[in-house]
Please model this.
Amino acid sequence: ALNKQYTHELLHGHGFVFELNADFLINYRAPLPLFKPLITYPMVRRDVSMMLPYAITVAHAQEIIASIDTRIVYVALQDIFEKKEWQEARSITFSYGLQDAHKTFIKDEIDQITHRVHTALIALGATIR
Model:
């Protein structure tokens, strides 16, 4: 502890004292960043619109889409629309991106993943529009 009279004579205004653990700083080793090469193959973007029951959260539907395939690199909410006439559901649109690190997609692969997304959403209770 510092003597108050000593600090009052040397310091004008407010001050504080702290202790720094220099051993931690000396021994700290920052993790090495891992190089991840950029993917040179094109991303395919798809949208899916649906009527989603209120009992199912938007976040849960988003997680379901993302879990369908490891090559789905993002899922983003695009639109939510509600009407008074739609008492049990709301209209939701998601976009999602497909990208393979090793090749360009062919149409059949895209169609298969899209079908799996639609099947999972229908099983969840959504109506694809």
